[in-house]
Write a sequence for this structure.
């Protein structure tokens, strides 16, 4: 068989995927990245869109299975995660862009949800330090854990009664020690433990590096609300995913960080719906924060940024994506940007490879949940 034939077959195989993605029914190709939207909405929750959360999956050479990275775990996103029926044990690495509740508000659900459903090892959480200690990720996680003393005590008592889960994998150390401070919380039960890797928000930093699998995750400052918010990129095997978190366009002060958004295969960037585009069914505007645009990106700005960043495929998130708002958002983005674009909703999946990028809905049942190491 000629080389060309083989290549054509690979391409047709890639585009041969089912119209919808059925979780746990597709292998990942050796050079294929899968990105799943688990939260694309606003801090004010509703059923169709949880707060921010994206899952990135790539094949691991060393472990022989899929490596998974969670970017933000905003309020409500764990209900969306459950639909994937991925064991919590396999999603222990999470990267927080900033400490607004819509970006890490499901911490307890992520943490205890896993403990209750068979995760045997601790969590590893990366996030920015603050400009003062009290505003950093370590402090946030510490207080979240402290608030759960009663909950933790019940689990420790339960497990110490003899029903101890199997020993977990030791927590890994694929962080960058020169830039990252590690904080470890030590509970008797492995699965309750949380390692926090906190790093300087004010510069471009490699926060995670897995040399064996060629995975590099970087963070750099976002222009959002106050110091201590970051954006991330994940580079692997010639593919690049970037996630803005929340950020207004990078102004003069931040302009050198714009380079980090270049050369993306998939760029997930916020695109904030202006307050006057939120209508109720009678056409009245809602009370969404009218000043929020000072630290967010409007659809017009989003379009202009994508025109500059030139990703292979741009994903816009952080707005109510409804029949009465999406066309307006779309048209405003299109004033500047003509490239590939998804206006994100929850439970969309992007398969990214050199051959192409396809986006599909995820088919699932709302009763789905994850019942243990091997799912259910
Ligand atoms: Zn925010
Ligand atoms: Zn937000």
């Amino acid at each position: 068989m000629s080389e060309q034939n083989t290549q054509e077959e690979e391409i047709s195989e890639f585009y041969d995927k089912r119209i919808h993605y059925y979780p746990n029914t597709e292998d990942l190709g050796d050079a294929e990245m899968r990105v799943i939207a688990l939260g694309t909405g606003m801090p004010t929750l509703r059923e169709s869109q949880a707060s921010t959360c994206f899952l990135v999956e790539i094949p691991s050479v060393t472990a022989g299975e899929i490596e998974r990275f969670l970017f933000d775990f905003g309020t409500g996103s764990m209900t969306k995660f459950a639909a994937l029926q991925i064991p919590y044990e396999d999603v222990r690495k999470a990267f927080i862009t900033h400490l607004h509740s819509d970006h890490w508000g499901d911490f307890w659900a992520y943490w205890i949800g896993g403990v209750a459903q068979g995760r045997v090892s601790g969590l590893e959480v990366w996030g920015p330090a603050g400009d003062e200690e009290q505003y950093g990720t370590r402090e946030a996680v510490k207080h979240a854990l402290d608030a759960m003393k009663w909950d933790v005590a019940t689990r420790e008592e339960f497990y110490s009664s003899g029903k101890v889960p199997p020993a977990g994998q030791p927590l890994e150390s694929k962080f960058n020690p020169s830039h990252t401070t590690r904080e470890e919380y030590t509970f008797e039960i492995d699965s309750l433990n949380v390692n926090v890797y906190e790093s300087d928000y004010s510069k471009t930093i490699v926060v995670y590096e897995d040399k064996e699998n060629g995975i590099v995750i970087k963070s750099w400052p976002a222009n959002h609300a106050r110091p201590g918010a970051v954006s991330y990129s994940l580079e692997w095997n010639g593919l690049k995913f970037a996630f803005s978190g929340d950020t207004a366009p990078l102004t003069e002060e931040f302009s050198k960080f714009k380079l980090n958004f270049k050369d993306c295969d998939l760029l997930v960037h916020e695109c904030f719906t202006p307050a006057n585009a939120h209508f109720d069914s009678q056409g009245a505007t809602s009370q969404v924060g009218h000043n929020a645009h000072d630290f967010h990106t409007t659809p017009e700005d989003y379009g202009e940024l994508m025109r500059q960043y030139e990703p292979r495929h741009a994903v816009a998130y952080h707005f109510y994506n409804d029949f009465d708002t999406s066309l307006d958002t779309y048209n405003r983005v299109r004033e500047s940007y003509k490239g590939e674009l998804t206006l994100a909703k929850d439970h969309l999946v992007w398969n990214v490879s050199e051959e192409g990028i396809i986006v599909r809905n995820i088919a699932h049942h709302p009763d789905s949940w994850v019942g243990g190491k091997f799912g259910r």
Q: What stands out?
A: The longest strand covers residues 33-39. Residues 3-361 form a domain with the Metallo-beta-lactamase; Chain A fold (CATH 3.60.15.10). The helical segments are 3-15, 77-82, 101-104, 107-116, 137-146, 149-160, 299-309, 326-334. The mean pLDDT is 87.
